[in-house]
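Saturday, quiet lab. Running sequence design on the structure tokens for the scaffold JK sent over.
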């Protein structure tokens, strides 16, 4: 019985150490996600005020992306006309902009096809 428990405990320790190391190595102003998303899924990533944002968003099928000023970060239903910046029905976005003087969010809305969406950006003062 002990022989089975030891490998399992070592595996759990290795996973925890891996997560801690990754969190320590990646700066707080850096976002990287590659995930499978459902049709019309909305995802929001925080962008601090007055930061320089560089990076990209990529997918095989069309999606839309918006920079929106918001205090809540909730975007179940949002009005794209209130966006500070927008990219609609695209498969790739190269991000290179100065965030406005208020905290905002990069909101990605998937199109009508399930797909893998890759997001990578950093926001630096």
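Result came back. Writing it out in full:
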């Amino acid at each position: 019985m002990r022989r089975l428990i030891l490998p399992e405990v070592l595996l759990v320790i290795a996973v925890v150490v891996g997560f801690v190391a990754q969190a320590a190595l990646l700066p707080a102003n850096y976002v990287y996600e590659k995930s499978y998303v459902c049709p019309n899924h909305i995802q929001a990533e925080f962008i601090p005020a007055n930061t320089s944002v560089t990076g990209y968003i990529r997918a095989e099928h069309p999606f839309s992306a918006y920079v929106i000023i918001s205090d809540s970060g909730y975007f179940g239903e949002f009005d794209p006309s209130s966006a500070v910046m927008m990219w609609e029905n695209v498969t790739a976005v190269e991000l290179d902009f100065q965030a406005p003087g208020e905290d905002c969010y990069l909101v990605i809305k998937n199109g009508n096809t399930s797909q893998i969406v890759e997001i990578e950006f950093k926001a630096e003062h």
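Notes for JK: The chain is about 20% helix and 50% strand. The first strand starts at residue 30 and ends at 37. Ask whether to fix the surface positions before the next round.
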